[in-house]
Amino acid sequence: MSTLRRTALLAAVLLLAQAQIADAHIVSARLGDFYAGALHPLLTMQDVVVWIALGLLAGSLGAAGGRWLVMVFPLGLCAGLAFAVGSGVTPASPLVDAVTILVLGLLLAAALRIPVTLLSAIALLLGVIRGAANAGELGPQSDRLLYAAGLAAAGYVTITLVMALALTFRRPETEPVSSWRGIAVRAVGGWVAAIGLMMAGLSLAP
Asked: What pLDDT digit, counting tens, does each position of 32-72 carry?
């Protein structure tokens, strides 16, 4: 065996002797709570449907009006999370989630020009409800600040992206509601309302 091979073999043996157990799970790191707060709502149907519907409603108002939801909704998520952690009360329930989705779908399908103030209040209320619902994933060792930051970041990014896509597709400033683009958005609202109706039926079933 050549000197080079003996040296390489000795180096490999030394490296293997010093190897330790690898920990590749992000949940054990401090930033794991941030990712948990950001990913959990994106894996829950109630959150995904509500957030997408809110983003579409924001886009239907136009860029100037929709920007308020981008700021208000993440604040509502943090407020709801803090309320649930402090009080131990979670206001969300399957029926409340179903009714929320049904109402948002009907608003989209009706293509109503909702005042910015009213829609911002609705977004704040929904943020509080969904933020409180996501508090159930907090464990005793969870960093609540990181979890809240991840939840707010996910809400901000989701609403912003969906609103931007809706604005690009819908073009509310230049095209009427009766255009094919407006009809397509209203059809999505009908599907959202149908999801809410089915969820309501399942929640009321014995």
From this structure: 888 888 888 888 888 889 999 988 888 877 777 778 888 89
The rounded distance, in Å, linking the Cα atoms of 129 and 141 is 23
Cα maximum dimension of the chain: 83
Closest CA to 128 of 86, 73, 85: 73
Distances (CA, A) of 22 to 19, 25, 192: 9, 9, 44
pTM of the complete model = 0.75
Torsional sign, CA 101, 106, 108, 113: negative
The answer to whether the Cα torsion of 77, 81, 108, 191 is positive or negative is: positive
Per-residue pLDDT band for 154 (boundaries 50, 70, 90) equals: very high
Alpha helices per DSSP H over the chain: 3-17, 32-39, 45-60, 63-87, 94-110, 116-134, 144-170, 180-204
What are the pLDDT digits (tens) for 124-151? 999 998 888 888 777 778 788 989 999 9
Query: Quick one: which of 103, 154, 123, 124 has its CA closest to 59?
Result: 123
Distances (CA, A) of 176 to 41, 60, 173: 34, 11, 8
Phi, psi (degrees; rounded to nearest 5) at 178: -80, -5
DSSP 135: G
Residues constituting the chain: 206
